[in-house]
Amino acid sequence: MGRSAEVGETGRNARSSRRKSRPSHGARNKPRTGRRSIVISCVRPGNAGLVQGYVMEIARVQKSLATKALSQPMHRFDDLYRYVRDVNWLESARSAIMSNNGAKTPGVDGINGQELPVSEWLVLLNQTIEELREGTYCPMPARRIYIPKANGKQRPLGIPTIRDRMVQEALRMVMEPIYESHFLPCSNGFRPGRSTMTAINHLQRLCNEKGKYFWIVEGDIKGCFDAISHEKLIHVLRKQIADERQ
Description:
By secondary structure, the protein is mostly helical. 46% of the residues lie in helices and 5% in strands. A two-stranded antiparallel sheet has the order 1-2. Strand 1 (143-148) and strand 2 form a beta hairpin. Helix 2 (52-71) packs across helix 6 (162-180) and helix 4 packs across helix 6 (162-180). The longest helix is centred in the first third of the chain and has 20 residues, at 52-71. The chain is globular, with a radius of gyration of 20 Å.
């Protein structure tokens, strides 16, 4: 399966869908006004292998998803899998993970993303698309490493293969606009454009005579990501996501 064939097929489908109708995820009415706002995942216009039109198309779909999630909080999204297996979404995901320093850290397959020739990347990309479309894609085990913590203990980390990271990034690109529309402004953890410093800045604006807040309570869930129930996570996802394809 050649890359040019993939791009051509996707391009024809995209042009055809634009002529027929707008995506079903868009909301005709204006979103509610309030503290929440539409958030679109970062899609870089300079992505290798992507023309500007496809970058704008991805951003438009993400805005459509976010708008509907904001205006219809109880809506369950279906037919999302088509984006995850789309060549342009996966190419955008590949470009995003390659811009990360972690791209040079291999998974259990030993592949260093930054050292992988373009020709081999195209083979890997087309193989992934074919497996996603046929329903045969299966992620490989994560490589376990340990990094030292300030208290002398070690923090376990799982390093996925570069191909699995590409698919995970494509999933993030689809799901993040939906869930960002439901998060509160006071939530700062693991969110785009937010960090520990934005949380501190928020506290500084509240903890004073004018804000009338004078105490900060810090808590931590021991081994949260090690012990969290995957069944409960899937249950939470099903409240917004109706597409069960894997």
